Amino acid sequence: MSIVVVGTIGYDTIDTTHGGVSEALGGSASFFALAARFFAPVSIVAAVGSDFREEHWRLFRERSIDLRGMAQIEGPTFRWHGRYHEDMNVRDTVSLALNVFEGFKPDLLPDQQRADYVFLSNISPELQLHVLSQVASPKLVAADTMNHWIENARPALLKLLPRVDILTLNDEEARMLTGEANLIRAGRAILKLGPKTVLVKRGEYGVLKFGGDSMFATPAWPLEEVIDPTGAGDTFAGALMGWLARTGRLTESILRTGIVYGSVLASFTVEKFAVERLATLAWEDIEERYRAFIELTDSHHSRWMSQ
Amino acid sequence: MSIVVVGTIGYDTIDTTHGGVSEALGGSASFFALAARFFAPVSIVAAVGSDFREEHWRLFRERSIDLRGMAQIEGPTFRWHGRYHEDMNVRDTVSLALNVFEGFKPDLLPDQQRADYVFLSNISPELQLHVLSQVASPKLVAADTMNHWIENARPALLKLLPRVDILTLNDEEARMLTGEANLIRAGRAILKLGPKTVLVKRGEYGVLKFGGDSMFATPAWPLEEVIDPTGAGDTFAGALMGWLARTGRLTESILRTGIVYGSVLASFTVEKFAVERLATLAWEDIEERYRAFIELTDSHHSRWMSQ
Prior knowledge:
homodimer; 13 helices; alpha/beta; 9-stranded mixed sheet
């Protein structure tokens, strides 16, 4: 089954203490789609400017990503300039220009309106609601949010949450949304706001799942070096949604496998700048790390002993 | 098979933002023994003063902990006064008095010298070496250390490490010992210093195992409230060593199960002040949380689906 994602596509300039990139393809919809496409067909809803480069149209197209919902508007594409600290969990936004994304209010294509799987990436809750209202009867809706919307668009966010099956956010955002310092209490408090499942992303410490049949905790894939954390969360969501769309069902076991695939794909994304690693990733790379991830986290080590 | 533990037994005064205790039974050997005894016989090597209270002799004795190696010396018992911040990962030592533990150089009993399982808790590397040199042919030696010894007794610590099968330390200490900011590199670098297995304790984020057949990562049991983190690390080591002594073997699978038991017991310890929770814990409590822990971390959720 196919997935519709709404989000940004833009050009990122990223500085770290060990180097950087300038005007690299980025944006939530880019990372999401480049991860999800390994599992299921994905259709993007986004806006790019007249400066959006042919090589990037091609990059998506060659990976069978549906771009019919990508509006090309006169003017410059969305741009973000971020700077990571030595501790890569901390970053500053040097500059942000919405450009053609400002005021973007998409009308979904007829087949997008019939989508089963919808991902509302980290854009304003108003825009998330605008897109969701056009989807006739989605089977599963997931959304991401961030501190900016929690602080400045709380009423719209609270209106969205009861319509969301899976909400993803990071640990700080979970605390901010609920006012609970303890993350376990925060996760449970968010469930009361409406989402059936809450996935709290803890960066190098992995993911906590609240809701569903039971709680699930999984570590992140251990990396000796993180080059660029940008897009890890959207990559995670892309692989997770891709897996859910591919299986077409939502059992506890399928959800957990999706979280592991999400963690695996995200671990590739951060190995290089921007979408560089995602763009060259092969299915064999994913399967190999998936198996290693299961071994890494298997408390009994039993699957491997019996082989 | 039985375990010998050398460490402190003392009286702790603990302040937190939500209350505290005064002159409560504590010390690394106390937590270790009260956890290990659920799995295997444990024998303590420690010194207490003339003020050590009868109720605490009884507390150990009623739990079949061997106290023949516990010297009672004229003078006051070891005392520690700690203060936790709002963020309970941070604590200050208000005061520390070694008292009768100062200059303690134990001679092991003949049967302790024949011990198979030895735990050298967080005392000076010189004292750890002094005890270890008396054990004829230990099957498995584990040791804990801390920032103080890494900074002030590095040569002795480096002498100890090649003789250690399992080293436990926390993430900050792993970074300090190796000078590696990345925890994965730090863990691997410690293996080169001698220990066959390194267990990095990450508090609420769980444990990372380096060495052995493969890497293992497990989260901590999610708690809505942490009352007092004191002794969590020694409790972890106690349950782990207890499990290893009980099984008498060291396969990857047995080691992982021991790490989970360690995490489970530690999660009980932090639920109340000092040894309060450990002292009232029943085997049924452990088994119940162990099963829930396996479910929490099972990527496939398969064990539960097939039941």
